[in-house]
Amino acid sequence: MEAGLAVLGTRLEGLLGAGRVITDPVRLRTYECDGLTNHRSTPAIVVLPDTAEQIAAIVRECVAAGVPYVARGSGTGLSGGALPRADGVLIVTSRMRRILEIDIPGQRAVVEPGVINLDVTRAVRSQGYYFAPDPSSQQICSVGGNVAENSGGAHCLKYGFTAHHVLSCEVVTPDGEIVELPADGPGYDLLGVFVGAEGTLGITTKITVRLTRVPETVQTLLAAFGSIEAGGGAVSAIIGAGVVPAAIEMMDALSIEAAEAAVRCEYPPGAGAVLIVELDGPEPEVAAQFAEVERLCRDAGAFEIRIAADDEERALIWKGRKSAFAAVGRISPAYIVQDGVIPRTALPEVLASIDALSAESGVRVANVFHAGDGNLHPLVLFDDAEPGAEERAEAVSGAILDLCIEHGGSITGEHGVGVDKSRYMPRMFTDTDLDTMQMVRCGFDPAGLCNPGKVFPTPRLCGEVPGVRRGAHPYEGKADLF
Question: Residue 479: pLDDT above 50?
Fold first, then answer.
């Protein structure tokens, strides 16, 4: 295997030049994990291509050598979706960061996969447009990674996920061919299958994104509550009144503590929870709805409400929420970022159950979430220097996902399955469901070399006859292969 990788490395250097191929063990460690650091694997080879043609050639070389490969953008993922293979090639697209075209009349832009999410908005803001998907990591995450994970963000309640803002993708298929996947072509919706497939069906090399008109007005408020349950009551009242905010976000006391330590966001002292509500649109409509939201928050028990007077104050309100994930590092040596979805009506019950899990286990949990669509992001805290602490945190993390499933929700809303949640897939899907999904994957990647070992707990061998398996799977007990 090592000899074969050495030969492959030489061939890749011939394609890209020695400076674009990394085999030094120290430099390779840079790429051993994504934003979820409790899953690590050092790749055998890292390559830094500049063009789609180079990526296609790299893929063809990997397929010819029978070597697995994984694509990676900025490495900000939170499910291990871009975790490299120790026996494979990591294809890093961060050098492909050109905005190729801006078409304001057509309300679209064409970008390479390494373009940073927020840079799309910066490029078109002066012309009255922006790119709506806004993950908390938007200052550093790449559009190619957003496509792979179908990323959301604080404003997904009104504006949807990445899939709603992608018009087409140029893709290198798992056999090394460059193809175009349009949104409106005849036949099957291959673009819909590809976006959110976590890089298991090919590698994005060019994305045409939809641009959204900057709204006439934006109003943002922060409401402080004595408890997270009271904040949840305000969320239900707002949505029940027929108001659809651009964003409605909540943080509990522990996540507020972390944000204060990290960025001094100066949220109201003594708050058990804060709710951030943002409305946008035509000025008369926003003014009427904003007054209703303020009233509903007070009726639900808000003891302080702050209204942003300008963009600077709006940014200050968002500062704590946008930094919440990283900020938790100020109050805990290590933590697991979880991502589950529940019906909005189940928020009070599920949050109470999470509190009970935390109390029973002695494992602290900080709650940050997209309250409007029930997308929870519990941060499970632990000290990785303490024996058994990580295992206890993993158990609480898994129990939270079970709660989401029990209440009719999902094990992921926007972070993806990756390697972190693959073992939970059978709790949500039947064997037939999983087999059907994997047959789609096999249709794209019959060799099983494109980001293998992600999403599914037990990989299907392409060519297997569908149906209930008899006896052990051929890969059972060989986890090192995946």
Answer: no
CA distance 153 to 63: 35
Q: How far apart are CA 333 and CA 350, in angstroms?
A: 26
- Residue pair 220/276 in contact (Cβ under 8 Å)? The answer is yes
CA distances in angstroms from 87 to 1, 172, 314, 480, 482, listed in the order given: 8, 21, 47, 10, 10
| pTM: predicted TM-score of the whole model, two decimal places | 0.92
CA atoms within 13 A on the CB side of 298: 8
Q: Are 28 and 22 in contact (CB under 8 A)?
A: yes
Between the alpha carbon of residue 215 and those of residues 128, 157, 218, 293, 385, the distances in Å are 9, 16, 7, 19, 48
Mode of pairing for the β-strands spanning 45-47 and 89-92: parallel
Could you read off the pLDDT of 468-477 as tens digits, one per residue?
555 555 445 5
Rounded to whole angstroms, what are the CA distances from 447 to 62, 112, 177, 182, 244?
Answer: 11, 27, 14, 25, 45
Which tokens belong to 101?
Answer: 């075209």
Closest CA to 136 of 271, 8, 262, 296: 262
Euclidean distance between CA atoms 204 and 84, whole angstroms: 17
* Contact between 256 and 274 (Cβ < 8 Å): yes
What is the identity of the amino acid at 194?
Answer: F
DSSP per residue, 75-133? S--SSSTTPPPTTSEEEE-TT---EEEEETTTTEEEE-TTSBHHHHHHHHGGGTEE---
Six-digit token string for 33: 């994990």
Provide the phi-psi class of 380: left if phi over 0, else alpha when psi is between -120 and 50, else beta: beta
How far apart CA 272 and CA 231 sit, in angstroms, is: 9
Task: Read off the tokens for 296.
Answer: 């509903």
pLDDT in tens, 414-460: 999 999 999 999 999 999 999 999 999 999 999 999 999 999 998 77
Q: Helix, strand, or coil here: 293? A: helix
First and final C-alpha spacing in the chain: 15
Burial class of 435 by CB neighbour count within 10 A (0 to 12, 13 to 18, 19+): middle
- Is 195:163 a contact under the CB 8 Å cutoff? yes
Query: What is the C-alpha to C-alpha distance for residues 198 and 194, in angstroms, rounded to an integer?
Result: 8
**CA atoms within 13 Å, Cβ hemisphere of 250:** 33
